[in-house]
Amino acid sequence: GSEMCIRDRNYGVTFPMMAKISVKGKDIAPLYKWLTQKSENGVQDAKVGWNFHKFLIDENGKWVASYGSSTNPLSEEIVKWIEK
After folding, report:
1. 55 with 66: CB under 8 angstroms?
2. Contact of 21 with 31, CB cutoff 8 Å
3. What is the pTM (predicted TM-score) of this model?
4. Distance between CA atoms of 70 and 50, rounded to whole angstroms?
5. pLDDT, tens digit (0-9, with 9 covering 90-100), for 2-17
6. According to the 3-state scheme, what is the secondary structure of the chain?
7. What pLDDT does 54 receive?
8. Paired strand residues for 57
9. CB of 46 within 8 A of CB of 57?
10. How many CB atoms lie within 10 A of CB 22?
11. Which tens digit of pLDDT belongs to each residue from 16-70?
């Protein structure tokens, strides 16, 4: 039915998904400009290499860390930071 088509199109997720945005280049989205440029976030430059790049932002909106695609989201360093 039509519900199956919607689920397939949305990869089976039930939460709202963002529209596709640019993470690099001249039309970079403001969010990724902040995430990737020290001049914006005040902490560090971070280059997005591929899908599933991870950024850690604390409860006050401060940029904390950046992890590339090869870092498992359940890695010890990420889990420890979340659980602290």
Report:
1. yes
2. yes
3. 0.72
4. 9
5. 555 555 666 777 777 7
6. CHHHHHHHHCCCCCCCCCCCCCCCCCCCCHHHHHHHCHHHHCCCCCCCCCCCCEEEECCCCCEEEEECCCCCCCCHHHHHHHHC
7. 95
8. 63
9. no
10. 11
11. 777 888 999 999 999 999 999 999 999 999 999 888 999 999 999 999 999 999 9
- List Cβ neighbours of 60 (8 Å cut-off, separation of 6 or more): none
Please check the confidence at residue 1 and state whether its pLDDT lies above 60. Answer: no
Q: Tell me, what amino acid is at 72?
A: N
Q: Which of 49-80 are b and which e, b meaning 16 or more Cβ less than 10 Å from the residue's Cβ? A: eeeebebeeeeeeebebbbeeeeeeeeeebee
The residues facing 56 across adjacent strands are 65
**What's the chain's average pLDDT?**
87
